[in-house]
Amino acid sequence: MLERATACFESAGRRFFRDSHDAIRTRRSLSRNFWRHNAASEDFSNWFLALVQSPDKRSSSALNPIPGSPTALDGGTPFLDFLYPQATRPESVFRLSRNSKRLGSRRKRKSLLGFSRTYTSEAVSNPPATLLDDQGVHRAYSHGGPADPPSQAMKDLWTLLQSQDTDFDKAWVLYLAAGEPPAIRTALCSYLSRSGRRSDQDLAWQVFGQIPLEDRSADIFLPMVHSQLRYEDPTRLKQLAQQAIQCDLADRCTPWIFAYFWKRERWTDAVEIWEMRSYLQTSAKNPSPQTYFSRMTEHAILQKGLEFTRHLRYNPDQRIPPALSLGQQLLETIYQSPKQPEHGSLDALLEILKSCSEIGLQTTPYYLSSISTLQSSSTRSGFSRSAFFYHQLRRELPRYVPSKDLLNRQLSALQFWAATGEIEFFLEEFIYFYGKPSFRAYRHALNCFSHAGDVSKVDLIFNRMLADYGKPFNCGPLVPLLMVHAQKGNPKETERQFQRVSSEFGLKPDTYCWNVLLKSHAAKNDWASMCSAFTQMLKNGANPDSHTFGTLMQIAAKRGDIDSTRRLLKEAQDCQVRITMPLLQAIIKAYCHNGELELAEKLAGASLSLNAEGSSLKMWNTILLHYARRMDVKACYRIRARMESAGVSLNAGSYYAILLGLVLAGRTERARRMLRELHKKRRMYATEMHLSLILHGFVREGNRDMVHIIFREILERFGKAGPQSNLLYLKYQVQRDLEIAKENGITEGARLRLALGEQVLQQSIERSDPAPSVSDATDYALSLQYQHLIKEYGKRGGVERARALFLQYADGRTPEMPQGKDPKRIPMGILAAMMTVHLKAGEYQKVEDLWKILLSDAIKKAGRIHLDMLQDPPVPAPKSSEKSVPASKTQDIPATLKNSEPKSTHASTSPEKNIILPAQRFILGQALSIYMRALGYKNETSRIRDIVAHLEHLGFVLTTFNWSTWVQMLASSDNFSDQLNAFETFEQKFAPFFPGWYKLLRGFGLKSSAVPREVWMLEAPQAERWDSLLGKKARGHWMKIEPDLPQPTYYTMAFLAASLNRIRDKTISQGNIELQIVNAAAPKTVKFLGQMPYKRDKIQGVLVRNRSEQLDKAKAPHERRVVPGGVLGVGGVARYRNDLFDEDEEQPELSGIIPISDLAEDTTHLSWMEDLGEVGPESVITPEHRIDAEGHVRHSRQKRQRSRKLHLAGVVGREKVRYKRSESGKSNNDSILPNVSTMGGLSSMDQQPLAEDEPSAVSQVTEVHHDQHQAENVASATENLDGKNRGGKADE
């Protein structure tokens, strides 16, 4: 049989090699398996090289053997001798040898004309090459040049290996053609390891095995590690780790191998790699313990570390010393990191510590290091985690005694972040461990509660401090007693506590105490009392500082008094008080209140060169906020760019201005998503102020469900709603009351009841202090709610309910009023609302009485500040702790403040003229319109002209609505002189700005030069636009910024049309003299009225055609989107209301309105937070911090679940691929797999089946996952697998 096979091969060889000097012609490339022939003999190299050589370079002995040589008997025998056993080869060669003279005389095939292309590859000559097994020669090639003569194949191979080409097949061909020289093996191995094909990786492994162990360097180990990582062969990786340790190169290789096993959750192999480091403890190149985790991301370390600790926790037999040592190193790597405790998954961090504590590892140092890291965090979200770590430390180690320094640092951080909910718990911890809190802890607690305005807590803690430490020796501990009342705007109680400093404690009030007293008067906006306190401060020898003048300047800036603010700054310079950024910020605030934003921006830029103490952030935020209110997008971008160039980072106030611009533009949903993203990414911490801004946007849009959701979120996060949130929620509930009343057929009158609005008001009263002062901030918040309810009742004829609410406010909020209700002590807003009530009831004399009170009160509040009430302060000696400002430094003040001196206060405060500040000139706009109507209804329109002249003499300015009201009242009069006055006023004030009837009927109005183009964002996208006009919504928004901008209205034109009709009717009996007078006095107005289009609306029907008033048609309901999670909660995807709610609820509370399935898919994973109240009070964690932690845990668990599914899919995919490889390897191992018989010690380990080394998918899932949910993940991952490599790619 062998002889017949030999004859067949001989015949085929003769046909194949027709001419030894001709090129081999074929259009097909050789199979890749052809290059896997493993023969390395000299004769193989000779004929193989002959195949790739060109005819002109091929030697005749390559295919025609030299006569006399053993291979000259037959050209085919050298290729067939491997078919015979070793003992029978000589005899078979002799029997099969035949002379083949016919091959050389065979005639060449003629080529076709015109086809000169030859299918051959250029090759170089092949000198004799032998396999060099001498290790000395290999080392000579590694460190010097090659020992054998250079050849063309070697040169080409060197050139290829040094290039960036990826022709791996050519490299292997040249390597074989060169005779597999040892000098090239290191470079070839590194070159082949770059390939992503398995065949090339096998060849690289084969060449790597031929390199002696002592000649393997780091340059060859590291590429091989990366190559086998792509190959994913655990056996080879462990072999590489062992050899790297033997070669003293473990620091370069083992971390990568360890990372591979760690990410694949092969804990046994990972522990084995970790254990290898103990073999070379004395080696200088032995990798440090931290190096093993250096090749992984922090997320992979934490998430896989959680699985590793679970593995040890639920498998006690795996707790061998190397595994425990690895666990201890894992703790050090995670909790000594500056980022992991703050940015890692909170539940994973706490569960790892808990698991390690159960398996016997030392965890206390890592609790303490994490708490210390979080206490110094720059974000409130990061700091809030410290309470969770401390609680678990106390729960897991109940006998541990925390140090005083740890508790003091925690209280200090709580004071910095104003987190009052956890103060009492840590004070109780002090008492439990040390008998009483430290004096420093008391100070932190008092300062925190005083700035929060919690009077009861300050009094309680202060009395406990007196019992523990006695009376203080300085005024420092007494300042919180004053601050808590000043923060609430209660100067009377602040004064009483101020007197206790000297009378009860025997101390002289220092500058800090005087500053707090001044702050209480500033909160009340009482300039006279403030000046009196400042005079007493100077008489008692207290030196004013920058905070003193800052308080004085703030009250002037709040009124918009630029001259007084600048004069106070000059007084501070004369007193050698250092100029700080808060002082400059007061001047910028005054400029902004007057609308001079460009000048304020210029001053802010100039102040940066002063190097003044303090941050300029508030200064820029003030300007940014005013630009945002104007919706000037370009200016906002410019301010933000200037802040970045000055190195000023955005904070919560900056983002509030940006969110305000979005809300005003009607992009509330976009603002909600932006706030959610900023909070989740810790760019800022969302406060009640930010959520109330989003609530304001949804109230404007009328999205009832989102108002409920966000208001409930505010109550859950912060425990109570602020003044702005309560007012917004009340306004919305009043809208609901009006809708319900309209459905019942009640639109106005005594039957109207705003039940939901009054319920919200009653809840706010119950949550407020039992007896606040008149000027208390709580009273101001409640007065806004009373004002809105009284106004709504008054406009709709609910006079009795409005009066009852007014009496309720007067009885409950002003108990010290002499003889009951003194209207002078009532806020101006409530008085204006009562004017509406009396106007609706026809009580015009009461309207006039309230107007007189309002006018006198407005003159006091809007008038200029009398600086002559301040005693000229002496120049004090500067304190050692405060640097003085030399006189020579005054030129450093910006030129904006120096070039123009402040105006004379006495000249500007004349009681006869211009006593009203320009920033307060519109303060009487609403009340004046009500008073004008009352005069018009009494037929006393002639008095309006005198009243307007008096107001303008004082410095007040009428708004465009005041002028419209005046025209309407004059036009509705039966006196011709009043009617003529109405036409003349309209001709003068409004006719030049009439846009035409087409635009006027659609709500368009005049656009001033100060209006930015971005105000068009308020309009609908499909609305018409003109560059010179404002849209309907934009006009309403801009009128709040520039109230005196002339805006003719359709309603006013209807009044003039009705008046003109009455004049025309009199022409029949009296002639047309009056009509001619009107036409001569107001020709444009008459022309516009003549062009008035006929409209079937209420305005023309009632005013012009004298028809009865009818109810308006109900608007079609607009479908709104609802986000169940609100701003920061779970469920942040917007859905339509019909997809979420089953019915339209009427309750003001949102109980049971959101299904549980929408809030969270699974709440059982939050069980680690259920027992937070076991240690200490239940308020150990504030609600806002608890809610944030729950949301973070839920998000991290869902993310880890998705990652787990991908990992299991990868395990299943790799098992399938590995099974196919093992099956195919059994059938054709000799033809496909490389021959590794020459690799010495590696061959015995490498020939093991691959599937036996890595556990199956089922066993790995059983090892890693310890609960029932993970079995479902395995099934879903197996079902979703649609390719053999999909899992591996997803896992990588």
Automatic annotation (TrEMBL):
InterPro entries: PPR_rpt, TPR-like_helical_dom_sf. One of its GO terms (molecular function) is mRNA binding. Residues 870-910, 1216-1292 are annotated as: Disordered. Residues 887-899, 1225-1247 have a biased composition (Polar residues). Residues 1281-1292 have a biased composition (Basic and acidic residues). It comes from the Eukaryota. PPR repeats lie at residues 510-544. This is Uncharacterized protein. It comes from Penicillium argentinense.
